[in-house]
Amino acid sequence: MLDIDINPEQKRGLIIVFALTIGLAGFFFLNSRPTAEPVLIQDTNIDQTQNDLIDIPTKLIVNVAGRVKNPGVYQLPQGSRVVDAIEAAGMQLKGVDISDINLARLLVDGEQVLVGGSKLTSKKSTPKKITSDNPLDINRATITQLDTLPGIGPVTAQRIIDYRTKVGRISSIDELKKISGLGGSKFEEIKALLRVL
């Protein structure tokens, strides 16, 4: 074992050096650890980003068209319903029936709300009776229109719709003979009332 002779002045110097070394080591140790502050900043940024994402779809853009006082494009809050869009456009014009519109339906961004359009179209097309001078287009006919043909009830009308759906498009009136219940005299009775466009 070495016998080192250290005078009090040297002892004091060694203690100071030792204390400084411990202090510096503690300082670097504490500063090298990640602090909670950057994590808080990051969390704040994530929350802000989430808020920004939430803010994007909180507005709906809808087009209100047809028979309203002020047709046009309107910006409405998320969760708005069809009635809100019609109100934004100043409501329907006097005498326009909106009973066929589901006013409680939630709106979707980018959609069009048409007020009074479908009823106007149906009023123009339904008064004309189906005759040989005004034949029914078999590829566009609705089940209700087919049901008005002589000898065709709702069951046969549905068979015609099903057949049309299956083949995609009926290319000739004679194709209807392939449908159960449309052969013979029944086909002869309705063929003059039908056309293919």
Characterise the protein shown here.
The chain is of the alpha/beta class and 197 residues long.
- Percent of residues in beta strands: 5-15%
CATH architecture annotation name of the domain at 128-195: Orthogonal Bundle
The total count of helices amounts to 7
Total beta strands:
5
Largest sheet: 3 strands, mixed
* Tertiary shape: elongated
Order the strands across the largest sheet as they lie in space: 2-1-3
Mean pLDDT: 78
Helix content: 40-55%
Distance between the termini: 116 Å
Run of helices and strands = HHEEHEHEHHHE
**Rg on CA atoms, Å:** 41 Å
Q: Please, what is the CATH homologous superfamily of the domain at 128-195? A: Photosystem II 12 kDa extrinsic protein
CATH topology of the domain at 128-195, what is it called? Answer: DNA polymerase, domain 1
Top CATH class of the domain at 128-195: Mainly Alpha
Unreliable segments (pLDDT under 50, ≥5 consecutive)? Answer: 38-44, 118-127
Structural class: alpha/beta
GO biological process, one term: protein secretion by the type II secretion system
Domain Helix-hairpin-helix DNA-binding motif class: 144-163, 174-193
Transmembrane segments: 12-30
Keywords: Membrane, Transmembrane, Transmembrane helix
